[in-house]
Amino acid sequence: MRRSIGFLGSLLFACVVHAGSGTLRVGSQVLVVGDSATRVTELLGKPSYRTHAKADSGGRSGGKKGKGRKSSSSGGEQWQYRQGNRIVTIVVADGRVASIRDDGR
Hints:
Elements: H1 2-19, E1 23-26, E2 29-32, H2 37-44, E3 49-52, E4 77-83, E5 86-93, E6 96-102
Antiparallel strand pairs: 1-2, 3-4, 4-5, 5-6
Signal peptide: 1-19
Keywords: Signal
Region (Disordered): 44-81
């Protein structure tokens, strides 16, 4: 009996960890971190709202940056989509999906 309770607890923990793993189901398709910005547009269409994401604060400080080069800590853009009662935020950096946040689960 105790083993089955431990197994169910482990299974529940695995499900919770997987829920924030950076995937989004769109109909029968799945969007994952690393997909292209074009794939996002194909699956979700034009975003309702688009803004610049905050830059990563954990970047290097005090170093010289090359001329005309972007900082490696640039945050990219946040694309927001409304799907029913939820808001899905996709962070796109360098033409790729950097993170997926679903604010309505």
